[in-house]
Amino acid sequence: MNTKVTLCFKSLFISLLLASLNACMVFPLDESNTDRSLNWCPPLHNCASTEASTFIHSIQPFNLKLPLEKAWPIILHTVDNLPGTKIEHQYFGYIYAKSYSDLFKFVDYVEILAVPNENRLKVRSSSLLGLTDMFVNYYRTELLRKILEEKGVITRPSVH
Question: What's the structural domain count of the chain?
Answer without folding.
Answer: 1
